[in-house]
Amino acid sequence: MKNSIAICPGSFDPVTNGHLDIITRAANMFDKVIVVVAYNANKKHCFTPDERVEMIKKCIPDLLNVEVVHFDGLLASYAADCGATAIIKGLRAMSDFEYEFQMALTNKKLNPNVETLFLTTDAQNMYLSSSMVRQIASMNGDISSFVPEAIRQDIIDRINSKK
Ligand code: COA
Question: Fewer CB within 10 Å: C terminus or N terminus of the chain?
């Protein structure tokens, strides 16, 4: 696909090794990948959008075809505005499927030019989630297997500052 643009959306609150695996694989498949720090109306976010964007950027200095942005509106509209033809999501387990399926169908309805593609998560990240990382950090646990070293201390400092 020439000049192909894909978007990788999520709350990234914070970004984890699981997300980074998906972003890296997407960057190998598309000419340009835009990581979209988006708003999930069902969640109360811990890190500000700017903090989440900065943390992702710190983790991927070598991925030159990846851009990281914050967007608070509808993902389908963002995809249309930036000319993306694909939304890339990681599927961890069957339990993710129903919700992801619903989002994919809704996004397709809102923007028929965009396809949602699911990448199977690496086995070692199947159990991982941002809330689990936050919970472990808040209890002074070791998060070094779940997030890159570049942002480990940022996460701990931010969570401790909220206590
Ligand atoms: N590896 C490890 N963990 C992963 C993962 C992966 N590859 N992919 C997702 N996760 C985790 C996430 O960290 C998240 O953990 P949490 O629940 O502890 O925060 C969980 O799995 C769920 O991820 P996801 O389903 O991607 O939800 P999200 O909140 O990260 O992102 C949005 C959802 C932001 C993409 C969605 O709400 C959206 O598109 N919002 C924009 C507004 C809009 O268009 N709404 C209509 C949508 S149809």
Answer: C
CATH superfamily membership of 5-127: HUPs (3.40.50.620)
Test site for ligand 1: of 44, 107, 129, most ligand atoms within 8 A of the Cβ: 129
**Interatomic CA distance for residues 149 and 7, integer angstroms:** 25
Longest dimension (CA), the chain: 48
- Residues with catalytic function: 19, 43, 92, 130
| 0.90 exceeded by pTM | yes
> From CA 99, how far away is CA 117, in angstroms rounded?
14
Q: How far apart are CA 115 and CA 109, in angstroms?
A: 10
pLDDT, tens digit (0-9, with 9 covering 90-100), for 37-80: 999 999 999 999 999 999 999 999 999 999 999 999 999 999 99
Segment holding 133, helix H or strand E? helix 130-138
d(CA 98, CA 123): 20
